[in-house]
Amino acid sequence: MHSRWQPRMRLIVILIIGFSHHLFANEIDRLSTLIEVQKFLVEKIEGKWSNQYIFSDSIKGKDYLSENNFFKIDLDQNGLTDLIVRGIYLFIITDHGNGTYKLSFVDRGVFLLNKYRLFDIWKKSNPANYTRELPILVVNRIGNQTVTSTYSDGSSIVELKFDSLVFKFNDLIEYNATPDNFEIEELTISTIGCYGACPVFELTIQRDRTVAFNAIQNNNVTGKFNSKIDEKTLTALNETVNYMKLNLLKERYKVNWTDDQTIITKIKLTNGVTKEISDYGAIGTFGLTNLYNQLFEIINSKKWN
Questions:
Q1: Which end of the chain is more exposed for a tag (fewer CB within 10 A), N or C?
Q2: pLDDT tens digits, residue range 99-134?
Q3: Among residues 304, 135, 299, 175, which one has the least CA distance to residue 233?
Q4: What is the CATH number of the domain that holds 249?
Q5: Residue 183 carries which DSSP code?
Q6: Rounded to an integer, what distance in angstroms lies between the CA atom of residue 251 and that of residue 212?
């Protein structure tokens, strides 16, 4: 009797497992064609793309990663499949569960003029979770190259410059195998106005989690305010600063266009070291942009009074 029912029970278990996988698989798992991806992007991410075919005039680079226009991989290591799209833009969609998604562009700058090409996707052991591999996006900003050697006949060797990006702290950041172990004493971000309605403010966060916000112009509020952040938010800021290769950052970054905004970041560490960075255009590095976004989130999520 046992041997008679065993094959049936095995079949039932297989069907249940298959049904469960289908039930809990996210929408990205089910995407298999460019048309399906386009429809998903319009319906779930950005409705205005209904008038623009994302995969037209692709700049993906024919010699890299075959001819794929999109890739499905768990970038943020939360167990849900994410989407990498390379078409007229290079961007990623991370699935945060319950039908919520986050759009993060690799292309950067005003009107996303700084275009990037995806060269490869690496996987390395994840020190935070040894059961999973950490995906790393190898990208090159189009036109970002350097001459390594020039010969007497005038010829030269041109070398492309690459960035290796991971998704951490809810955004892209340059991969760092050996993060620092600093602790923030004080973190200040201030902005200078642009040709337009850019918000002008100064935000200072102390080690004890107190926050001072001076909203000067073009913010949702105006005036000086005080508040406090939770321990989790402060920890994320500390970990981001330690991951962004602070000692290698320049003191000044500048885009090659005009009328943009400057962000000045000042980081005081408990070891007495202070790092100040001026970033005209706000795209000095992916790590800096990641940090800015976390600080903007603090400003936008607080009820200042």
A1: N
A2: 999 999 999 988 888 999 998 999 887 666 655 789
A3: 299
A4: 3.30.1560.10
A5: -
A6: 24
